[in-house]
Structure formats: structure tokens, C-alpha cells
Design goal:
Elements (H helix, E strand, L loop, with lengths): L3 E3 L5 E2 L1 H11 L8 H8 L2 E2 L12 H7 L4 H9 L5 E6 L1 E6 L7 H8 L6 H9 L1 H14 L22 H11 L4 E6 L2 E5 L7 H4 L6 H16 L2 E2 H7 L4 H13 L3 E6 L6 E4 L3 E3 L5 E3 L10 H8 L20 E6 L2 E11 L4 E9 L5 H18 L4 E4 L4 H8 L1
Parallel strand pairs: 2-9, 15-16
Antiparallel strand pairs: 1-11, 3-5, 4-5, 6-7, 8-10, 9-10, 12-13, 13-14, 14-15
């Protein structure tokens, strides 16, 4: 990476500078160790979609290249754990040292503020049932919700939870239970004292204000440059909370207001932030990668309109089902529809398009190398180009 330069001389950034700052802040090009990269990002979002691989594995591959996914599993599932699962940006794996920063959210859930209303209603209406579920997990855990002796029946759809599932989700949200890991994608519930290290459990509980300020600091570092909405969304903070804490960090000089050319809203950077003059990056991105999960910000930074196709009706999918953006340098230059065919041991390229103004032949060598690396990391025998787009044709010519 080229030398960096302070931006203190001017409080205006070009979009290209903002892009480089965002990509650098997100740790692209890091070579480990794993935990250091996760701390730089702040958290890894979990999701059930497994078309290529579980989504939380991909951001580290995008930044570090091929790595041992079992090593990531050990961080969250084997003692001494250095990651825990909680509601950060949706369900997330979060560095263990941040655990005390979420106690205010757990307390809010106990008080009936925040969280899903269904589990909270069950806790109010059937406290003895909640107590019995807690006792069963204390006796038998770690177990999944379906293993509870009184789990009850689900209503059949994805969110049609049984009473047992509602109970453990309430206890998980309020911090009375935690996750001991996953079986497939099923969360295994356990008492915090059997999962969270003693030193973390005994660590002082910061005030809600102190915790929220620290979460905003983490979000600011992970963004590089961000609007108030961007910062708030990273850990899903409330509007009033974010405005108050942001004002305090500005008054303390920890954050600085800047303008980004073309952005309608004010932006903020952490004190001492430097902008790379140039950078090198080549990565396929998970749809849940923290660089792009805030879709309006992705459009502001990259001019890249992106939506989750697998959550939209089939008739409205224009680019494919599991579309991964391709980052090259400081631009999102293409989108590729991928699927891991595990039976045939092939990474399937089902579709792919270069962005407007990007030459397919210019990006094909880098993309082909990235696809081959991804296939090898996934333990597949190779890449199969099933697409007939111009980008696929360019990949065949390489």
C-alpha cells in the first residue's frame, strides 16, 4: 500500500478518497491473525443462506485469502472463546472483549424495550414456562430449541416459532442465555457462565452512554468515513442514542465532521484518520459483508445498486440468485452469480456482468484468479462457467 496522507488540511473528501478510506478501514489485504481482522471489522454477521458457504466465513476470505475456517469456529465454540454471539448488526459474532458493551441492550430487553414482541409477550404471560426452560438448559445444555422437552410446535413458516423457540430467544436477547455455538445453523443455548470467560463476566458494566459511545467509536473506525445513519446502523443503535453520543464524541474531538463530494449528509471520521493515496484489493464479497451491507452507503461510495436477490421474488431477480460483488482496486467492477455444487465438487458461475464502463477483458484475469482461489478454499475441484454473458466469455478467453 502506498504512503498515507492526513486529511486534516481540508474537511472535504472526494468520493474516490472516501472509497479508499472505507476499504482500508475494513481491513482488506490483512494477512491475519483472524481475531485482529475481526476486531478491525467489529463483528461478523451470521446468516442461514448457504449457497456458496455460510456468510460469516466469507468476509475473512475476502480480506485475507484462503484460511482455515475451523480456526474461526474455534474462536466462538472452544474454550477459551474469544468471540461470542449476540445481536450486533443482526445476529453476529463479536469479539469477546465487547461483551460488556451489550449489557445495556440486554437490560433493555428485560425491561420490555427492544427485541421482538412475541418472545417478550410470552415472558410476561408465562413466566413459569420461561423459568422451566431456563432450568432445563441449566440441567442439559448446550441444546437447541427443538430439543426442549416442552418445545411445542412451530406454525410451519420460517418465523412461525414454537413457544420453546420464543422462550430461548427471549432468554438469549436478555443475556440470561448465550450461544455455545452452532450445529449446522441451529443455535445451541447455554448458561453464560459455561461459555463467557469469567474475566469478561466479572468485568465492570459500563453505563449505557459509555457503551454506546464505544460502539460508535468502533463503528467509526470500521467505516473510515460515515454519515450518522451509517454509524447508527452498524450496531443498530437508536436514533436519539446515536445523536446524543455522536454530539459528545464531536465535542470531545474524537470525531471530526467532513463533507464528501456528492453526499447530501454530513460525514464523520475518527481523530487521526489517514486516507490511502492508493490501495490494492481484489475480493468477492458476501452479500452480508460489512463493507456493503448498508445498501445506500454502497451506492454513495461505489455507484453500485445492490439488493439481496434471494430475498426477492424470482420474477424480480435480474442478476441471479446469490450475487457476489467483485471488488478490484477501489471499485466494485462486477457482480457474479455463484453456487457451490458440492456433489459435483464445482464452483458454478451461473451469471456475471461487468459494471457500466468497465471492460470485461480488463477485469477477467483478476476475477478468474479469485474464482479459482475461492473454489480451492471451499475444497472444490474447480470452476465451471455455465453463464453465457460477455463477462463469462472474457473469463473463458483468459
Amino acid at each position: 500500500m502506498a504512503p498515507k496522507t492526513h486529511i486534516a488540511r481540508t474537511n472535504t473528501l472526494s468520493v474516490a478518497e472516501a472509497r479508499r478510506l472505507a476499504i482500508s478501514a475494513q481491513g482488506f489485504g490483512n494477512k491475519g491473525p483472524l481475531l485482529r481482522t475481526i476486531k478491525q471489522i467489529g463483528l461478523l454477521q451470521l446468516d442461514s443462506v448457504n449457497v456458496v458457504v455460510r456468510s460469516h466465513y466469507l468476509p475473512l476470505f475476502s480480506r485475507m485469502g484462503p484460511y482455515d475456517t475451523a480456526a474461526l469456529d474455534r474462536l466462538s465454540q472452544k474454550a477459551p472463546r474469544t468471540l461470542f454471539e449476540y445481536w450486533g448488526h443482526e445476529a453476529s459474532l463479536i469479539p469477546m472483549e465487547y461483551y460488556p458493551l451489550f449489557r445495556w441492550r440486554m437490560e433493555q430487553a428485560r425491561a420490555g424495550r427492544g427485541g421482538w414482541q412475541g418472545p417478550a409477550r410470552l415472558a410476561r404471560e408465562r413466566p413459569d414456562f420461561i423459568k422451566a426452560v431456563m432450568q432445563e438448559i441449566a440441567d442439559r445444555g448446550p441444546i437447541g430449541a427443538g430439543e426442549l422437552s416442552s418445545a411445542g410446535k412451530s406454525t410451519g413458516n420460517w418465523w412461525g416459532w414454537s413457544d420453546g423457540k420464543r422462550a430461548v430467544e427471549y432468554l438469549f436477547w436478555t443475556g440470561q442465555l448465550t450461544s455455545a455455538g452452532r450445529r449446522g445453523f441451529e443455535r445451541l443455548y447455554a448458561l453464560p457462565e459455561r461459555v463467557i470467560p469469567e474475566a469478561i463476566r466479572n468485568a465492570p458494566t459500563p453505563s449505557p452512554e459509555d457503551a454506546q459511545r464505544e460502539l460508535l467509536r468502533i463503528a467509526a473506525r470500521a467505516h473510515g468515513v460515515a454519515t450518522e445513519f451509517d454509524l447508527r446502523d452498524y450496531f443498530r443503535l437508536g436514533v436519539a442514542e446515536t445523536k446524543a453520543r455522536l454530539s459528545e464524541l464531536l465535542d470531545a474531538g474524537e470525531l471530526t465532521e467532513v463533507a464528501v463530494e456528492g453526499w447530501k449528509h454530513k460525514a464523520y471520521i475518527a481523530r487521526g484518520t489517514k486516507v490511502p493515496r492508493s490501495l490494492e484489493a481484489s475480493a468477492l464479497l458476501s452479500p452480508f459483508d460489512s463493507l456493503i451491507w448498508m445498501r445506500p452507503r454502497t451506492e454513495r461510495l461505489f455507484g453500485f445498486h445492490y439488493r439481496l436477490a434471494f430475498y426477492t421474488p424470482k420474477a424480480k431477480r435480474t442478476q441471479g440468485y446469490y450475487v457476489m460483488p467483485f471488488l478490484l482496486g477501489d471499485r466494485l467492477v462486477a457482480r457474479v452469480d455463484l453456487k457451490a455444487d458440492r456433489k459435483k465438487s464445482r464452483l458454478l458461475v451461473l451469471g456475471g456482468h461487468a459494471e457500466a464502463g468497465i471492460g470485461e477483458s480488463e477485469i477477467a484475469p483478476s476475477l478468474k484468479a479469485m474464482l479459482a482461489s475461492l473454489a480451492t478454499w471451499l475444497g472444490l475441484d474447480g470452476v465451471t462457467l455455465k453463464s453465457r454473458t460477455e463477462l463469462a466469455a472474457a473469463l473463458r478467453r483468459v
